[in-house]
Amino acid sequence: MQRRRAGRAHHPVLPAAAVLTHLLLAAATVAGADEPGTPAILATVCGARQTPDPEGFDVSFVTTLEMIYQNVTRSGYGAAGSGAGNDTVFGLGQCLAYLSPTDCQLCYAQSRVKLPHCLPADGGRIYLDGCFLRYGADNFTAVATDASDTAVCGSNATGGPPAPGFAAAAAALVRNVTAAASGARGYYYASSSPESGRAPRAYAAAQCWRSLNASACAACVASARDRVLRQCLPGAAEGYGLNAGCVVRYSTRPFYLPADAGGGGGSSTRHTVIIVIASVFSAVAVIGIAFVWTKMRSRRDHLHDDMDGSGEIIRAIAASHLSFKYQELRRATDEFNQINKLGQGGYGSVYKVHDPTPTPF
Ligand SMILES: *[C@@H]1O[C@H](CO)[C@@H](O)[C@H](O)[C@H]1NC(C)=O
Ligand SMILES: *[C@@H]1O[C@H](CO)[C@@H](O)[C@H](O)[C@H]1NC(C)=O
Ligand SMILES: *[C@@H]1O[C@H](CO)[C@@H](O)[C@H](O)[C@H]1NC(C)=O
Ligand SMILES: *[C@@H]1O[C@H](CO)[C@@H](O)[C@H](O)[C@H]1NC(C)=O
Ligand SMILES: *[C@@H]1O[C@H](CO)[C@@H](O)[C@H](O)[C@H]1NC(C)=O
Ligand SMILES: *[C@@H]1O[C@H](CO)[C@@H](O)[C@H](O)[C@H]1NC(C)=O
């Protein structure tokens, strides 16, 4: 529309965007795997193409990830699409079946915070230790393998090479679990190698996304298996095959067993984790509301058809290494609290974005 206003001061989104950007950046800290309870990022792959309409695409991105949130955290899998034309965004999230519901929520929250780093690319995927999240302009949910498939290999916790005999046991086990995955419940199969005096136990698991059919799952895990056997064995104590439609993992550690045997996080750690999840989602909800509000506003009032306010928010996320420390998040949300709090929603607090500009028309 040609009736674009010149004065930025009259744009209703900018003050809200500035406040949000400020709070998000204040709350953002560079925190890595050293943060206890934070699942490690194994790989991030961002698409090479940029979306022709970043602002509209960002809105659909937030909507799609919000749509799949409920199903991923409830059942470990969710897929959805939203938007139209160039603003269509498909999304898929999957937790590995060995995660507890709480760990799945934490993992999904973390992946959802990290994935916007790929924007404004029109597709991206992230593999965390325990979950997967992907978005794209095309419906990729039936894709099992593609050119971005990769393997990640790691050393054992003490840094040394695996004990003699481990590689052979791990290779046999990886073959076993990948052969079983496509016929298993939820396309998930995990097992350990038999006890033997000569070799330490190996542990392995294979998981396909639930959007695949059985034959696509079998093809996917076979491809991931071959990559892991070729690239990670015999030298590495840990290996991950990361495909478009599945993951295969082996380790010297019983990673898929409940953590209480191995001394996992205590209940206070758990409590903090849950609070952090609630906080992260309240921050995400704020962003979502800002988007929807901006969108409705711009529909209602064609004078405000440029959406640089909302783009600013999502790009602030993209530019930062958003990993929330609880104290900082609380400080940020308390600050925000003073601006305007509407009430409690399913994802934590819901805030109103204050519009200081009276409509003068
Ligand atoms: C989508 O983007 C392309 C490239 O910018 C443009 O040519 C096309 O008209 C757009 N389509 C729609 C429906 O807006
Ligand atoms: C979530 O799961 C329910 C029940 O399985 C299904 O009806 C719904 O379409 C799913 N929604 C999304 C967004 O995946
Ligand atoms: C994506 O494609 C699959 C079939 O490959 C279909 O079942 C699914 O409904 C599609 N998703 C959306 C959001 O349209
Ligand atoms: C499984 O899915 C793939 C990919 O969508 C498709 O090409 C194939 O025909 C499907 N196979 C069966 C048996 O449905
Ligand atoms: C891990 O590395 C240490 C140090 O080299 C080695 O002694 C140990 O056997 C390895 N553990 C396994 C399970 O391979
Ligand atoms: C693989 O499966 C076969 C048959 O089920 C079993 O005999 C063998 O011990 C398994 N190997 C490993 C390493 O789990």
From TrEMBL:
It catalyses: L-threonyl-[protein] + ATP = O-phospho-L-threonyl-[protein] + ADP + H(+); L-seryl-[protein] + ATP = O-phospho-L-seryl-[protein] + ADP + H(+). One of its GO terms (molecular function) is protein serine/threonine kinase activity. Residues 1-32 form the signal peptide. PROSITE patterns: GNK2. Pfam families: Stress-antifung. Keywords: ATP-binding, Kinase, Membrane, Nucleotide-binding, Phosphoprotein, Receptor, Repeat, Serine/threonine-protein kinase, Signal, Transferase, Transmembrane, Transmembrane helix. The chain crosses the membrane at residues 273-293. It comes from the Eukaryota. Residues 39-140, 148-255 form the Gnk2-homologous domain. This is Cysteine-rich receptor-like protein kinase 2 isoform X2.
